[in-house]
Amino acid sequence: MHLCGHHKQERRAMPPKVKRRLQQRLLPIAALEITATTIVVADVLRAKSFRHGHRLGWLLLAFVQPFGPWLYFMFGQER
């Protein structure tokens, strides 16, 4: 029995067409993020120095999606 009068709402399954379309739109974004993270980790492990910050900080930030890898490219990567 609910004291506040709210009824439990049923979760409806997403229609297959909508689910497929959503997956098709998210897949390229996910691929881009995975690629960027992989590049950042490889670059951080090889780098001798950084413009700002330290190796451990950039390694941790690389896994903060979606902004971590892009912040490294803008502020950490030695050019």
Form type: elongated
Q: Kindly, what is the distance between the CA atoms of the first and last residues, rounded to a whole number of angstroms? A: 64 Å
Provide the helix percentage: 55-70%
Structural class estimated from helices and strands: mainly alpha
What percent strand? under 5%
- Uncertain spans: none
What does this structure look like?
The protein has 79 residues and is an all-alpha fold. It has three helices and no strands. Helix 1 packs parallel to helix 3 (68-76). The radius of gyration is 20 Å and the shape is elongated. The N and C termini lie far apart (64 Å). It is a multi-pass membrane protein. It is found in: Cell membrane. It comes from Lactiplantibacillus pentosus (Lactobacillus pentosus). The chain crosses the membrane at residues 57-75.
Kindly list the characteristics that best describe this protein:
single chain, 79 residues, mainly alpha, membrane, transmembrane helix, cell membrane
Write the layout of secondary structure elements.
Elements: H1 16-46, H2 55-61, H3 68-76
Helix pairs in contact: 1-3
